[in-house]
Specification:
With 269 residues, the protein is α/β, with parallel strands linked by helices. Helix content is 41%, strand content 16%.
Length: 269
């Protein structure tokens, strides 16, 4: 059975597609068979990322480890069972086709609340939630009392994850491992960053997730997308002289993959 990794957050701009591409490609480089689904049917950022990668490889005449990307299949609505949701059918059809072919199936969710995202979260063996290091993003996880910083209660996204966990438990599935990534961190040690970190740790103990460092804010991530490359592809792409920022970013990726604690994975790259 393929291990399902879901990358989700209801807020856009947290770096979900960049995280998804780097995790899936890192696993492919470790010799694992990896499948990828992009549930943002409008923007398709992850799907475009992989298409750019395939075009780059063809253009340059090289081969790079690449996950298997499958667009959600179209369906004939006249063949749906009574009460069957067409989005559910599209998602389950894609999963049914990919799962026998892969060791890991990564699902990238849109930055909004959709039926597809809701169903995907209930299927996650590992849920990865990238968030920008600010209380704007934190508000999706929990409500904070501005007077004293106390956590008042879970917010909309945490409640959706809770419901997904309940559905898994009722179906007899193993518990979900939820990791919140502090992503796009600035280099400066700011008071706000410290406060957000403290609030996250308090919330983690309360509602049951692990906190892990994601990627720092770096220009290179914006440059890699056009050619579909990741930090692990730079030498294969002919970029031999890595600057200190690139080396540090590779270490962040190595640390991230290690923090996920995926079955049979040791990040040797």
């Amino acid at each position: 059975m393929a291990h399902i990794i879901v990358v989700g957050n209801e807020k856009g701009g947290a770096g979900k597609s960049t995280v998804s591409m780097h995790i899936s490609t890192a696993l492919a480089r470790l010799g694992k068979r990896v499948g990828v689904l992009d549930l943002d049917l409008r923007q398709r950022s992850l799907g475009r990322y992989i298409e750019n990668r395939e075009a780059y490889c063809q253009r340059e005449g090289i081969k790079l480890p690449t996950p298997i990307y499958m667009p959600l299949p179209e369906i004939d609505k006249s063949k749906l069972e009574t009460g069957e949701n067409p989005f559910d059918k599209r998602l389950y059809s894609a999963i049914e086709e990919l799962k026998p072919q892969v060791d890991f199936l990564l699902i990238d969710c849109p930055g909004s609340h959709t039926r597809l995202s809701q169903v995907a979260h209930s299927l996650a063996d590992t849920l990865v939630t990238p968030m920008n290091d600010s209380y704007v993003d934190f508000d999706l996880l929990a409500r904070i009392d501005p007077a004293n910083g106390n956590i008042l209660g879970p917010s909309v996204y945490s409640e959706m994850v809770w419901n997904a966990r309940q559905l898994r438990a009722q179906s007899g599935m193993k518990p979900m491992d939820w990791i919140v990534l502090r992503n796009r961190l600035g280099a400066q040690h700011m008071h706000n960053k410290k406060k957000v970190g403290e609030s996250l740790l308090k919330l983690a103990r309360r509602i049951g997730f692990r906190v892990a460092p994601g990627f720092s804010e770096r220009v290179i991530f914006r440059e890699l997308f056009l050619n579909g490359l990741t930090l692990l592809d730079l030498k294969d792409a002919g970029i031999r002289s890595l600057n200190l920022s690139n080396v540090a970013a590779r270490q962040e990726l190595r640390d991230l993959v290690g923090e996920l604690e995926l079955p049979d994975i040791r990040p040797k790259f």
